[in-house]
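Minutes, project check-in
Item: structure for the 344-residue chain
Input as provided by the requester:
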Amino acid sequence: MTVPRSRRRELLRSLLRSPEPSIRWRTRVHALGEDPGAPRLRRLRAEVRNSDRVRRLLREGFASHRPGTAGGIYRYWQGTHWALASLVDLGYPSRDPAVAPILDRAVRLWTAPRYDRTVRATAKSGPQPPNGVPLLHGRYRRCASQQGNALRYAVALGGPDPRADHLATLLRKWQWPDGGWNCARSPDARVSSFMESLTPMRGLQAYADRTGSKPAREAARRASEVFLERNLFRRRSNGRVMRPEFLRFHYPLYWHYDVLGGLKGIVEVGRIGDPRCREALEWLESRELARGGWPVDACYYRVSPEYRSGCEYVDWGRAAPRLRNDWVTTDALHVLAAAGRLDA
């Protein structure tokens, strides 16, 4: 789809005027390709750190961090785990002492000794066993999106940490033959899950970028084939759309999947130029609004000041298919810029 250059320029100008410093940071770094280490960008990250949205996430993140708080780390979506993942997407600066306590507790959870132990299973059973990771028919059945997200925020927000090395090792250990991950307990499961494979791929790539680890980089590349072999949203068997929800925009994604999230991951792995991305990129372009930008089609959260499952403390924008959402828009511009399709 050909978009008038003037419309794209006006969209970028509008985003750069946003009262949200994170929107301005995402536009400059991801859409315009500015150096995040430049003085102007460092000052902008300081604005991100002191923004109202970040202050709210940190205040509530520390509240749910208190020992004895039920579900304080992983509770949907107000737990510490999700607050830390959001800080990465917001452009929060790394190695901030203010974040260290909740970061430490979250990483400690996902590197607990039980994840090193293998429990051999013979048939489909109930929840994940508390004493180890089940191995069934030669495949580890693990919700690797948890460790994948943890590796991503450990790398982005913390300093060198042997626990990040351990997270990367665990993810590589649990990787399925086709390159992804799956927590399905059914003996018949032979194919990786999109939902369980996206954040481990992104986490391993972030770790490889930070440390230069060739095994982690290769593991992330193998994971990218799970998506690329299916054009990011189609079944290999018959070419049909895997799930209608994959073609709808969401923000935040949490552990879910949609095509925009998949494209972002492929950008990070450095494979957005692969011809198998073309259909997904064309679909992304086709969803641009007439006045510029992209919408949120559906939300996985509700906003509540109370500590309740399925709720957020901050508002990321309501589902409105004809209304621009700046979080989704900056992600879409990031993908199009990386693909050489942002003519602005």
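Outcome recorded: Residues 1-99+230-344 form one domain.
No further action items on this chain.
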